[in-house]
């Protein structure tokens, strides 16, 4: 299974061509992405699994929307169901978050 780690600033085929996606990046998000990356590296799992596992800790989230474009993305997303983040990991992910204005489409 291919590793899907995309640390802050990583260039992908989409990020180099998608002008709209670039408008969603904010320097305030970098510490959050760094926290996701650190937990993913410590657990030896893709960053997407950590993000999905975090979403699953939120009672208001009935089902995360996964933008899988390849079969292994879906397999990785399903594996996140069993990841189970610790309270410390959740705090590590949430502490650097800075609320931002909503994006309007």
UniProtKB/TrEMBL annotation:
Segments forming a coiled coil: none
GO cellular-component term (any): cytosol
Pfam families: Aldo_ket_red
Gene Ontology molecular function, alphabetical: oxidoreductase activity
Positions of the UniProt region annotated as Disordered: 1-27
Entry annotated with the keyword Oxidoreductase: yes
Matches recorded under InterPro entries: AKR_Detox_Biosynth, NAD(P)_OxRdtase_dom_sf, NADP_OxRdtase_dom
The keyword Nucleotidyltransferase is annotated on this UniProt entry: no
Residues covered by the NADP-dependent oxidoreductase domain: 19-94
SUPFAM superfamilies, alphabetized: NAD(P)-linked oxidoreductase
Domain of life the protein comes from: Bacteria
Keywords: Oxidoreductase
Name of the featured protein: Aldo/keto reductase
């Amino acid at each position: 299974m291919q590793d899907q780690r995309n640390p802050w600033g990583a260039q992908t085929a989409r990020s180099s061509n998608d002008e709209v996606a670039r408008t969603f990046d904010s320097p305030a998000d970098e510490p959050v992405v760094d926290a996701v990356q650190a937990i993913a590296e410590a657990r030896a799992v893709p960053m997407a699994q950590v993000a999905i596992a975090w979403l699953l800790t939120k009672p208001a989230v009935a089902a995360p929307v996964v933008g899988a474009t390849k079969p292994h993305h879906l397999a990785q997303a399903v594996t996140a169901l069993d990841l189970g983040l610790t309270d410390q990991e959740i705090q590590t992910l949430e502490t650097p978050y800075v609320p931002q204005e909503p994006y309007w489409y």
